[in-house]
Write a structure and sequence with these properties.
Blueprint lengths: L26 E4 L5 E9 L3 H9 L1 H7 L2 E4 L7 E4 L3 E3 L2 E3 L6 E7 L3 E6 L3 E10 L2 E10 L6 H19 L9 H18 L1
Antiparallel strand pairs: 1-2, 2-10, 3-4, 5-6, 7-8, 8-9, 9-10
Helix pairs in contact: 1-2, 3-4
Length: 192
């Protein structure tokens, strides 16, 4: 069962990084008339197995990304529930967005499809004592939404850095604490 991030050690958002420029920006390319691929390359000072766990262990995914259910096994279900949505001044959870594992090869490759977020592919390569991660998200969204999607993943992947250090996002306060960070990153992506 996933932990409640607000009650986890280090869940105080005041202790989390809010400088979202410490990692390079992601990029995007048109796949065809309907689909766009977003790509991020990040280096984390953690072993591939530790980064893999952050994508596949429900207790760890909730620290930085979303609530998950399913198994990181090819063909298994892999559903996501976003926790950083705001409604009437309060953080709320979304409904489950259903997904499936297209390919899983621990700890180097996880590819999933998701009803809301299209296809997500995470490739992990050892790099000294750390990991280079290539994160790809192929989505069908209007051109004006691409910068929003880039900013969203940018912030979540920044939260991943914090989670690898044992720090959890307090999702009930995400909107107040991190939406301004998202807005700054979004402005960078929108400026091109």
């Amino acid at each position: 069962m996933a932990t409640n991030a607000a009650n986890s050690p280090g869940a105080n958002n005041a202790g989390l990084n809010k400088d979202m420029t410490r990692f390079p920006q992601g990029a995007f390319t048109a796949v065809d008339k309907e689909r766009t691929e977003l790509v991020f390359t990040r280096r984390y000072d953690a072993a591939p197995g530790d980064v893999w766990a952050m994508f596949t262990d429900p207790d760890k995914t909730e620290m930085w990304w979303a609530r998950t259910r399913g198994m990181a096994k090819t063909g298994s279900s892999f559903d996501l529930k976003w926790l950083n949505v705001k409604d009437e001044g309060h953080g709320i959870e979304t409904d489950w967005w259903y997904g499936r594992v297209i390919e899983a090869d621990a700890p180097r490759l996880l590819e999933i499809s998701n009803a809301m977020h299209g296809r997500i592919r995470i490739e992990l390569e050892p790099d000294g004592g750390g990991t280079v991660m290539t994160f790809r998200n192929t989505i069908e969204v209007p051109a004006e939404v691409v910068a929003m999607q880039l900013a969203g993943w940018h912030v979540h992947l920044d939260h991943l850095q914090e989670a690898l250090q044992g720090k959890s996002v307090d999702w009930q306060h995400w909107w107040d604490d991190f939406h301004p960070c998202w807005q700054q990153v979004h402005a960078l992506y929108a400026a091109g």
